């Protein structure tokens, strides 16, 4: 028997990095997905097949000796086999429409889809339980994750997130497209988060002031989203970018992409940890084509919209 599940990638519209220190972030899932298909196999192995490589681990060994990238899947398979007292293995196939390592939530989406697909071999868990498992699994490779990414990949849509209150959907009725430009500079989220931690320690007053500005800006975003005032939301994105530049997570390439994107879109910023990865530009039907055309000369570009489905499973 096969058990399949898919989950969407995501972008952070506002609040990355500051969310780690308690601020609100606003994020949305996107219409690019990762699908995970699992099946039980007689051999006592956990076999993972993906475009990033194939890995085999012993089903009853600790997950620590598996390839770093695949630790979450070995963890989930191992835990599930133990829970149901199964003396067999699991084969896991991962198919992705989301480029990895560029801040579009490929890691979280794959953890959410894998948690649903693997547990789906035995039981159908509520989304809240899948989310808990997915966060546990992602912590095998990124211990400091705030949990925001896995939450939006599970529930989908436009959402706010903060560490204290968790995840809450935003029902704003706002309608927009996003243009995503991939700098093709790879980044490591943990390293960039660590760099920001050092920046905060060395520049306490400045960081506190930037944090305050971010929190105020996010209150304005809620108002503008409620009115579907894209021009204002875009200008707030560009303001958010200025704050991210001050904490040192932009790069020359990202600065160029943001500058170019701002010429035709409502506003643009890094999405996710920065230090590489992608920028997003806010657009609608009126300016999507010129923004795509303009950025094509500088980066790999594509457009996306909010995905409202979140986790989808098919048993
Ligand atoms: O680069 P991403 O998409 O994994 O985003 C990281 C977002 C941070 O705020 C920098 C970290 C976090 O866990 O929220």
- The unreliable regions are none
Main sheet makeup: 8 strands, mixed
CATH topology of the largest domain: Ribosomal Protein S5, domain 2
Computed structural class: alpha+beta
Query: Which ligands are bound?
Result: (3R)-3-hydroxy-3-methyl-5-(phosphonooxy)pentanoic acid
Q: What is the 3D form?
A: globular
CATH architecture of the largest domain: 2-Layer Sandwich
> How far do the termini sit from each other?
9 Å
Give the radius of gyration.
20 Å
Average pLDDT, rounded to a whole number, is 94
Query: What order do the SSEs take from the amino end to the carboxyl end, as H and E?
Result: EEEEHEHHHEEEHHHHEEHEE
What is the name of the CATH class of the largest domain?
Answer: Alpha Beta
The total number of structural domains is 2
Q: Helical segment tally?
A: 9
User: How much of the residues is beta strand, in percent?
Assistant: 25-35%
Beta strands, count: 12
> Which oligomerization state do the chains in this entry correspond to?
single chain
